[in-house]
Amino acid sequence: MAAASSSDSEGDRAESSEASSKWLDAHYDPMANIHTFSACLVLADLHGDGEYKLAVGDLGPSGRQPCLKVLKGPTVLAESALPALPAAAAAFLMGQHEPRTPALALASGPCVYVYKNLRPYFKFSLPQLPPNPLEQDLWNQAKEDQIDHLTLKEMLEGIREKAEVPLSVQSLRFLQLELSEMEAFVNQHKSKPIKRQAVITTMTTLKKNMADEDAMSCLVLGTENKELLVLDPEAFTILAKMSLPGVPVFLEVSGQFDVAFRLAAACRNGNIYILRRDCKRPKYCIELSTQPVGLVLAHKVLVVGSTQDNLHGFTHKGKRLWTVHMPAAILTMNLLEQRSRGLQAVMAGLANGEVRIYHDKALLNVIRTPDAVTSLCFGRYGREDNTLIVTTRGGGLIIKILKRTAVFAEGAGEVGPPPAQAMKLNVPRKTRLYVDQTLREREAGTAMHRTFQTDLYLLRLRAARAYVRALESSLNPVSATAREPLKLHAVVQGLGPTFKLTLHLQNTSTARPILGLLVCFLYNEVLYALPRAFFKVPLLVPGLNYPLETFVESLSDKGISDIIKVKRGENILLEGPETGQRVACKTSERTVLEAQERSPGWTCRSAGSQYTGGSETPASMQSEMRTALRPQHQETRSLGTR
């Protein structure tokens, strides 16, 4: 009885879980042997009969040849071999004539293969690139038997390491061969011309002149030589060419080519570039801290997945809106668009077998799969409008259908205006004073604007005069000369009569450190006493804050205060052990330290540049200082603080 009740409870729990789920399990085949990624999955009505089919660019692992598979339901309808690995697949309309049957485009290597009714229709090849002139010269010498295959190998390796123009496929294949096979390869290919062909890395579609679902679309190609090409859907000519600083790997577009469009390209250098119509170069750049693993455009928000297991939301101008951390590594991303409810969400396939669906940063749903997800696709399949296609790492195929009664409820992490914003405010009625003020502003608007502009100009003039006075008196905390890019900030602590004075020095240059800087204090010795008035500043690294601390003792019992100035340690006052033994000089840290070592009784204090000093300094020391402290013709400026 206990066992029977336990099995009944498990069955009830499974039934309740199935009932609470938003998805119907239509098909699961762990041995479907489909190995692809999201860019190579496309759902389209390839025959124009209303029956949507799934086109897959299969990578063909385990030594098998890459191929194009077309599935109708769970079965493979057609299969054709590909000469190279597929990069992307897309369905688009080539013209306005009837019947409106979309064509299938598959990017593979340097070519785009176009199929209509599952038959080869057109092949577009990327234009050839100019070869490396040094490489061309080497193969010409090999053709005339001026160099042997070993010399050719060494020189090609040197070109590959240093040249900016990459080698051709012929040279790269030659460098991969064994030494015994190189001579035969050279004899076979030395008469062939050198060709350098670009490779397609990504592809998407862009509406040409209308935003309708059944409007013509242009193909947008991203190539290995850092270019974006827009192809005409009828003649397959290049309509536009744009350059990027990096190799594009993900593309998202919005708008129409003939009107206005915006294109976002995620590149291998970790940046996302935004381009607009009639722009040959990117207009905005979004810098990521890690490599992107996916790019989806949902409701004018660019959602980017990174290798740090994060989803980031950006505007088209590069402003970050939000960040969501994932529980596992992101393997693939795609868009979920439920047109009947106007919903656009982002699907993220994780390495732990989960498919997470987000609307902005709000989690809508979690789907768990038996294996890690490698590709996702959502749309109309067969005659069902909302179908989810999932492929797993082991080659499995999962088909789920969204229930017609399913509603995605956003969680606690919902982004958007708070509920209080939708409440109607109790706006007070217009008073007589408000109406009179409005009439006054309407009648005397010009005079009020002129008065405002006059006050604004006076404010700017006073601010400029105050800034000039600060520069002339050297009381500004930031150095005004590029020769000494310093910033000083002083903090006084204590209630008296002893205070703690802390100077914060910062090097404001971008890359140049400052070495050998001295700092001294100028103060009234009748009012203040400083145990340490001279500092040797360490090496100032740009951007770091260096605190210098000393104590100030107030000697006046009447509460009299004065200014303490901070200056570069160029004017130094040396005082002897006896009264009157002092000398003021323009010096450096090395000379002061040498003088203190030779005459231990002498101390160092700050002094003004007009101080002349006494004449009782030892003659040997004075002569050494006069010799070493010759004027440097270097301006002494105060960084000043009160």
UniProtKB/TrEMBL annotation:
Spans through the membrane: none
Record's compositionally biased regions (Polar residues): 606-625
All copies of domain Bardet-Biedl syndrome 1 N-terminal, residue ranges: 23-276
UniProt-annotated stretches for the region Disordered: 597-642
The Bardet-Biedl syndrome 1 protein GAE domain, residue ranges: 486-566
Protein name: BBSome complex member BBS1 isoform X1
Native source species: Equus przewalskii
Annotated gene: BBS1
